[in-house]
Amino acid sequence: MNGMKNKEKKTVNIPPKSPIDELIHSRKIFIKGVMVSKPDNTIVVLLGGGVLSRALGGEISFKLSEFSGLKSANEEELNNWELVGGGMGIHWENLDEDLSLKGFIISALKKIKLEMSKAQNSKEYKTLTAAVV
Q: Domains along the chain?
């Protein structure tokens, strides 16, 4: 042998991006701010960039009670947040809580799908589609 060691190449498997990741990056969507109201049990995520953010009116709203790490926090703790990852997430240092843009978009799309499903089963929807066909 010539004293050289056989080095194995380490392969790093990077999972393919999900369609939501592709949407966020291709449309340059980011979180630009957050509004939190404990009395109203509401968190509003303000979006920047992209057609999707404009289609959603530039914001996505949720109930604070949907997030276990936020629902018991007081108003001061809730308003002590910072954007991370260039607007890809929100971090609450004092609550040790992190929420992602991807998670917000997935939740919003699920809500839209549920509302559409409810609407399609409604009498008004059936009457409207019957009139159009």
A: 19-132 (3.30.2020.40)
